[in-house]
């Protein structure tokens, strides 16, 4: 059986995650965590990817996890499992729209990163990287809104993870 899962490395400077849509990666090691969403979860896995790759998750891990040498943090289950996940109320059209927008933007970032990795042209890489960063910034703005963060709180988060 091939299970779609979200992958999170055990040691990070900033939280990062990726999706394994094909169930190709084995988690029979100590280098990564896998999250398999239950069938009743309505949110798209890309929504969770957005949260786990966001400054919100990085800030949380930096304040709750074990600090390792070199500026790294542990993200094993006891820490990553506690990252606050903002669930979507799909009966609220505004929340549903934000969810759908985030999912579409994450999908766009994944496609742009594939193009980035497949080109050797420096000017094309620079253009793609600017597009990727602009979309990620838009995703973060929507997440800050979903988490009801104020500008002071956003500044604290962003300053902490620089």
Contiguous low-pLDDT stretches (5 residues minimum) are none
**Helix content, binned percent:** 40-55%
Strand content: 5-15%
Total strand segments:
6
Q: What is the structural class?
A: mainly alpha
> Could you say how many structural domains there are in total?
1
Q: Rg, please?
A: 16 Å
Tally of DSSP helical segments:
6
Could you walk me through the main structural features you see in this protein, from its secondary elements to its overall organization?
By secondary structure, the chain is mainly alpha-helical. It has one domain (5-160). It has six helices and six strands; from the N terminus they run ββββααββαααα. Strands 3-1-4 form a three-stranded antiparallel β-sheet, with helices on one face. The chain is globular, with a radius of gyration of 16 Å. The relative contact order is 0.14. The mean pLDDT is 90.
Question: Can you summarize this structure?
Answer:
The chain contains six helices and six strands, in the order E-E-E-E-H-H-E-E-H-H-H-H. A hairpin with a 3-residue loop joins strand 5 and strand 6 (72-74).
């Amino acid at each position: 059986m091939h299970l779609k899962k979200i992958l999170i490395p055990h040691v990070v400077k900033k939280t990062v995650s990726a999706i394994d849509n094909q169930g190709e990666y084995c988690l029979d090691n100590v280098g990564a965590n896998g999250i398999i969403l239950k069938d009743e979860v309505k949110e798209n896995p890309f929504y969770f990817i957005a949260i786990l790759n966001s400054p919100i998750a990085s800030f949380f891990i930096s304040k709750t996890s074990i600090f390792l040498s070199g500026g790294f943090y542990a993200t094993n289950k006891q820490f990553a499992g506690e990252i606050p996940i903002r669930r979507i109320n799909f009966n609220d059209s505004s929340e549903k729209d934000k969810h759908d927008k985030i999912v579409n933007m994450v999908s766009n970032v994944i496609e742009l990163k594939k193009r980035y990795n497949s080109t050797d042209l420096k000017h094309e890489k620079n253009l793609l990287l600017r597009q990727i960063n602009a979309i990620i910034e838009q995703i973060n703005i929507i997440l800050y809104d979903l988490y009801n963060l104020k500008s002071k709180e956003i500044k604290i988060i962003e300053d902490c993870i620089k």
